[in-house]
Amino acid sequence: MNTDITASTKPEYPVVDRNPPFTKTVANFSVLDYLRLTTITGISVTVGYLSGIKPNIRGPSMVTGGLIGVLGGFMYAYQNSAGRLMGFFPNDDEVARFKK
């Protein structure tokens, strides 16, 4: 069974790294990726706080929402960064930086 996604879909943009490692993908996070991560986390903390019906459960609910937001935001940023390195998303900055 072939689980390589690049085998079934051809990238539209130049490929910087066909299979980028975790460290390279995280190092490639852009300011927009960090902004998205922070925004998703902030919204999740707020929703977690507001979903705590009783005052004594708002703290744990807020922490749980924050953890979900951090993980979701990180995964979204990671997906965008890896997609740019693999050529599936616009990647002019990455091509210029890694061409040197």
TrEMBL record:
Q: Does the keyword Transmembrane helix apply?
A: yes
Keyword set includes Membrane? yes
Transmembrane region(s): 34-53, 59-78
Q: Which residues form the NADH-ubiquinone oxidoreductase 21kDa subunit N-terminal domain?
A: 11-89
- Name the source's superkingdom: Eukaryota
Check the record and name the InterPro entries matching this protein: NADH-Q_oxidrdct_subunit (IPR053229), NADH-UbQ_OxRdtase_su21_N (IPR019721)
Keywords attached to this entry: Membrane, Transmembrane, Transmembrane helix
Q: Which PANTHER family match?
A: NADH-UBIQUINONE OXIDOREDUCTASE 21KDA SUBUNIT N-TERMINAL DOMAIN-CONTAINING PROTEIN, OXIDOREDUCTASE 21 KDA SUBUNIT, PUTATIVE (AFU_ORTHOLOGUE AFUA_4G04750)-RELATED
User: Could you tell me what this protein is called?
Assistant: NADH-ubiquinone oxidoreductase 21kDa subunit N-terminal domain-containing protein
Instruction: State the organism named in the record.
Output: Tetracentron sinense
